[in-house]
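in:
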């Protein structure tokens, strides 16, 4: 009976060893396939990563250009605001000069009118007094 158990244990060990050897062979095939898959994936990802880096560089360039344009727009806006302030000041000065010119013209008109009235009045009075 002991020999029967030894035969059963021997057969069980042989079957287990065969199964483990088969499992190791399948595991080896799986590792090879995984390595091949990783190699293929790495090969296909390299161009993609390079393209992503180029895209990021392009986006950085666009961003820098937008910053330059924004800066130029700020400068232009400041210049337009300064021009508006200058135009307002010039308009005020022109309005003041126009008002002053009106006052002077009105004063000149009144002076000429008064002078003519005085001259005519004196001419008629002298003529009338001499006759």
């Amino acid at each position: 009976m002991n020999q029967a158990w030894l035969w059963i244990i021997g057969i069980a060990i042989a079957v287990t060893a065969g199964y483990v050897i088969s499992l190791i062979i399948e595991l080896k095939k799986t590792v090879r396939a995984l390595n091949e898959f990783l190699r293929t994936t790495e090969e296909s990802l390299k161009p993609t990563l390079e393209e992503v880096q180029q895209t990021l560089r392009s986006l950085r360039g666009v961003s820098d250009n937008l910053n330059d344009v924004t800066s130029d727009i700020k400068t232009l806006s400041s210049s337009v605001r300064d021009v508006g302030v200058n135009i307002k000041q010039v308009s005020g000065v022109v309005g003041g000069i126009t008002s002053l010119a009106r006052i002077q013209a009105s004063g000149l008109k009144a002076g000429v009118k008064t002078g003519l009235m005085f001259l005519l009045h004196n001419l008629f009075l002298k003529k009338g007094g001499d006759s």
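note: Residues 33 and 117 are 122 Å apart (CA to CA).
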